[in-house]
Amino acid sequence: METDLKKLKVQLYQNRHLQDFNLEPLPHGASVRRYYHLQFIEAGYFPSKNVVLMQVPLNRCEMIEDYFNISSYLSQYKVPNPGIFEYLPQYGWIFLELARGTTLDEFFRNNDAHEKENIYIQLLDFLIKLQLTTGYEKNCRAFHRKFDQEKFQFEFRFHLKEQLLEKFFGHSFSSEEKKKFDQFSKDISSYLDIDLPIFVHRDFQSSNIFYHPKKENPDFQIIDFQDARNGHPLYDLVSLLWDSYVDMSEETVNLLTQYFYANHSPIRKQFSEIEYEKHIDYLVIQRKLHDAGAFAYTFFLTQNDYYIQYIRDAISMAQSKILKYNNWPYISEIFQKIMETEHV
Q1: pLDDT digits over 224-266, tens only?
Q2: What whole-number distance in Å separates Cα of residue 20 and Cα of residue 13?
Q3: Which end of the chain is more exposed for a tag (fewer CB within 10 A), N or C?
């Protein structure tokens, strides 16, 4: 690690003539992206002494361009996100403001969580405002890609079937089992394919939301939105409330889902209460099985085993909804067997 930091520091000097700063790695989550805190002795090249560098592999430089494009879109609608000082896709670099406060998951780890419900209500207001104030923009890359049946089915196939069940757990599918899996995937994916130009953050969860407590109007900022797309208006709600990194009682989750419904008039017009519940349930299945597969995929890609600990809980969240509908006994049996025999 120390050698890598020295190498990066040399590259920053050679390519941008940056000097007189300390360089510290920051948490980077389940991703190939890396984050660093640059703390300068004096403000100079950048207008701040504290700068965050997001670095991506050179073969993934489109991430940098996506981040810049979508950050500009969000700033147009005054959606809080760390400002950009400079972006250099040719080096895989983007230099950002240091976000205010801490990520929400870190805040709850280090503080009394007695105000958790109130904070989440304020965050739901933030999400509602984001959805009601942002709109379709042809130049925003999020509106060039969609959460549709094809995308959902790809995630079932790649993250769930290939990465989690076959590669991580070693499950072998017969031809008949593949048909049952494909039907399960199609049932969920086709139901969730809604043609609405709604901006979807894609990973709206505690590790990507910075929180700075204030007596009035708490300060939220969002990061990690380079994979944003458009589609289902409840996707970000499910990502937030069925979060692998923050424990939430079922009672609190139910209260918050009802709060969102009661305070989001376009959602009430789009979904009856029964439809709202079913869409949430299906999204929990899709999202949490994708998460479990993504944790496995990250392990194979980076050899970082930190996120393996969250696989079991992600499967449990999805399994509770699968059993509720009793439409896919084969799938529920696979997960039941895994939960009983595997130690993850």
Answers
A1: 999 999 999 999 999 999 999 999 999 999 999 999 999 999 9
A2: 10
A3: N
The answer to whether residues 70 and 140 touch, using CB atoms and an 8 Å cutoff, is: yes
Q: What is the pLDDT of residues 156-190, one digit of tens each?
A: 999 999 999 999 999 999 999 999 999 999 999 99
**pTM (whole model) above 0.85:** yes
Backbone angles phi, psi at 36, to 5 degrees: -140, 145
Cβ contact 35:26 at 8 Å: yes
Report the side by side order of strands in the sheet with 209-212: 102-103, 209-212, 219-222
d(CA 52, CA 85): 10
Domains assigned to the chain: 2-97 (3.30.200.20), 102-341 (3.90.1200.10)
Spell out where the chain has E strands. 21-26, 34-40, 50-55, 84-88, 93-97, 102-103, 199-200, 209-212, 219-222, 229-230
Q: Say how far apart CA 152 and CA 189 lie, in whole Å.
A: 5
CA neighbor of 305 nearest in space, from 296, 316, 293, 315? 296
